[in-house]
Amino acid sequence: MKVLNILSILTAAGSAIASKCHPYYDCCKGCQTILTDEEGNWGSENGQWCFVDEKKCESVLGTCKFEAIGYPCCSHCDVILTDDDGNWGAENGQWCGIPENCGSTEPSTNQSVAPTENFFDNELYISPNYVKEIESTIPDLSPELQAKAKNVEKVSSAVWLAYEGAPNDVAPHLKAAGSKTVTFILYMIPTRDCNSLASAGGVSDLDKYKGYVDKIANTIKKFPESKVVMVIEPDTLGNLITGETEACKNVHTLHKQALAYAANVFGNMSNVSAYLDAAHSKWLGWAADKVAAVVKEILDNAPNANIRGFSTNVSNYMPIEAEYEYHQKLHDALEEVGIKDKRFIVDTGRSGVDVREEFDVNQTWCNLIYAGLGEPSRGSPDPENMPLLDAFMWLKPPGSSVAPTENFFDNELYISPNYVKEIESTIPDLKNMPLLDAFMWLKPPGEADGSDTGSRADPVCGREDSFPGSPDAGSWFGEYFASMLEKSPFYSDDTVEPSEQSTPTSSTESAEPTSQTSSCKFEEIGYSCCSHCDVVYTDEDGDWGTEDGKWCGIPENCS
Q: Which residue positions are annotated as catalytic (predicted)?
């Protein structure tokens, strides 16, 4: 029988425990973060700054937190040492970590705490940036289309986290959001969209991707009352199944690791509802068994990933009923491999016209000329017949980029001064669709998919069935928005109740001044002055905040 040398182990452990996590500051004993900067997270203990050990505090790499600091998890609960990291045991002459609540029938604190509710049943956010894009096109529209465009301004769409600085946008979005649901799309995986050119990009390696994900997650944790939907990496799963180019083959393992990491992080947060993207029915509808096998491989390497389900049709054009047939196939295939009770959301932003026949000709994904705006975003579209559908959602605003690669928000925040009212409309037969959580505009309609010119030119965007004259991916494409708006069967005056409050209107379009003696210039264009200085939005008129669900202007030199 091998004898365990406790003294030598204790000595080695003491040395490891004494090591620093920052060259100039002590490691925090706890995990409470009170400040985040470019170096990481900071706490304060005994009146001194300390550096929060992310490996200890934000571990998502294994079944217990000790794996993140280089130790296995014990298979027993016999504690022989306790230090700042927790309880320790020993197995086979080596230290092992003992999870909290070891031996208890209660779930470990490291087990998933993902929400069970449908976050899309909550109030949804409307992007002021998207509203401004629509406003820029309205003067060029007919009176009939102008009225429809005003109704489109009330539809919630997703925020894409798709450029290097995007994690810095999360906090201001959530601050403005309060308890309302905001949908983010994580789209920064290394070698992103390996099978095309228009939306290529992403971070350079897996470690940077983990840091990108961690920064977003750590920010969300500072807003525990927020409700966040996180859609994880559109197109990546599709390329894992069908990507036959060398560029795709070379990153299969990397992409699986990255998806597992992101799912493990966001699928284990109490205020995040995570959906892994699963392409669309035309892409993977024939391969549900293959999709399920790859998903199982990914989730097997993400032990805390209690994702809610899957998103489909992001930036695409497939009708709801076609997507739901795919949902059913994928749901059954997932059940066969032990992945149970998953839900779906479908991007309806550009699915207002059934274009399957036209799409089949060339499978043109870039600014397809036949598309029309689809169902507005909303949760539980038919709770009686579709209890598993979370939402219809505009994940990509129609006309928007498949892959935004710069900051299109410029620190402008998603705000929701009004409730997004449920819209009655004539829709396809959606009976017997229990897998759907929601309709959601995941891509904001009107932003371009890509261009056939410039540094990221993609030949698909130059086809005859791709709307001509497109700017780069992510840029506003007003002509394409107008085309989809005209073809849409929705958003006429009698289908959407008018908003009581919209995004602040530019002074060039405002009413006559109400007073020359107002206490701030914003009263002259019909808005009150804020009683605070918290800026959530800036345009040519100045800085804006919100009070009582309404816009208010922030005076210059506010203090």
A: 235 (proton donor)
Out of 16-25, 115-124, 256-265, 528-537, pick the least confident.
16-25
Report d(CA 300, CA 191) in Å as an integer: 23
Same domain, 329 and 469: yes
Residue-by-residue DSSP string for 447-473: B----SSSTT--GGGGSTTB-SS--ST
Task: Check whether 544 is labelled as a binding-site residue.
Answer: no
My answer on whether 94 and 213 are in the same domain is no
Q: Are strands 537-539 and 542-547 parallel, antiparallel or unpaired?
A: antiparallel
465 as an active site residue: the answer is: no
- Beta-strand pair 389-395/343-347: parallel
Q: Are residues 300 and 381 in the same domain?
A: yes
In a domain, 494, yes or no: no
Q: Which domain holds residue 542?
A: 507-554
**Model pLDDT for residues 246-282, shown as the tens digit of each residue:** 989 999 999 999 999 999 999 999 999 999 999 999 9
Residues 184 and 163: their CA atoms lie apart, in Å, by: 13
Same domain, 361 and 458: yes
Asked if residue 557 belongs to a known ligand binding site, the reply is: no
Residue 95 labeled ligand binder: no
Residue 6 is classified by DSSP as H
Domain count of the fold of the chain: 3
Q: Which of 53, 85, 169, 235 is catalytic?
A: 235
Same domain, 90 and 152: no
Residue 249 corresponds to which amino acid? K
Phi, psi of 17 (to 5 degrees): -65, -30
Based on the domain organization, do 449 and 417 belong to the same domain? yes
Helix (H) or strand (E) holding 328: helix 320-336
| Cα–Cα distance measured from residue 65 to residue 58, given in angstroms and rounded to the nearest whole number | 8
pLDDT digits (tens, 9 = 90+) for 111-134: 345 677 888 888 998 877 788 899
Domain containing residue 520: CATH number: 3.90.1220
Same-domain pairing of 87 and 193: no
Q: Does the residue 114 lie in any domain?
A: no
